Amino acid sequence: MEFEIPKKVQKIDEDIQREKLKYHNKRVAVTKEFTFDAAHHLHCYEGKCKNLHGHTYRLVLTISGFVDPVGISMDFGDIKKIYKEAIESRLDHRYLNDVLPPMNTTAENMIVWIWEEFDQKLDDYQWKEKGFLLEEIVLYETPTSYATMKREWMDHDESL
Ligand SMILES: Nc1nc2c(c(=O)[nH]1)N=C([C@H](O)[C@H](O)COP(=O)(O)OP(=O)(O)OP(=O)(O)O)CN2
Ligand SMILES: [Zn+2]
């Protein structure tokens, strides 16, 4: 037996069809959060963090892009795919001093590395040519200590 879509719902579908043209093509940012666990120690640092220790890092990624006719800018699933390939597969359950390029593994240095890796993937997978931009990254080292990078700050710094 075939299910007949109720008249009221058909009307809603027609309204959606009309409305989506109105909302489509606006730039909207979407954000997805991830966690990974890793060990590290700091160089040239006097304090407890010079000793080997671990964190559950929390990474908050924000990407802007144009909303398509379905109502989606960048699919949360696509953000996850890039995160897994560019970041998780390389940092999760690793000793950061060993796997990252030579750098002091502060939250500041790590967030710059994460920005560059994620941004490169947006380029590799043709997201950039469709107008998608990495807008902001927040990297929590502990629940109360975190670093932030924003595209608007870079644009401002480049014009100085
Ligand atoms: N500007 C930075 N300061 C510190 C960094 C860093 O990356 N950038 N890193 C550390 C350590 O790695 C440490 O693990 C985290 O520091 P801290 O917030 O002091 O950790 P606590 O758990 O002790 O913090 P609470 O005050 O107990 O919340 C040190 N500094
Ligand atoms: Zn630490």
Automatic annotation (TrEMBL):
Top-level taxon of the source organism: Bacteria
Keywords: Lyase, Metal-binding, Zinc
Cofactor: Zn(2+)
Classification via SUPFAM superfamilies: Tetrahydrobiopterin biosynthesis enzymes-like
Pfam families documented for this protein: PTPS (PF01242)
Catalytic reactions on record: 7,8-dihydroneopterin 3'-triphosphate + H2O = 6-carboxy-5,6,7,8-tetrahydropterin + triphosphate + acetaldehyde + 2 H(+)
Transmembrane segments: none
Molecular function terms from GO: 6-carboxytetrahydropterin synthase activity; metal ion binding
E.C. code: 4.1.2.50
Gene3D superfamilies: 6-pyruvoyl tetrahydropterin synthase/QueD
Metabolic or biological pathway: Purine metabolism; 7-cyano-7-deazaguanine biosynthesis
Family: Belongs to the PTPS family. QueD subfamily.
Descriptive protein name: 6-carboxy-5,6,7,8-tetrahydropterin synthase
Species assigned in the record: Fictibacillus enclensis
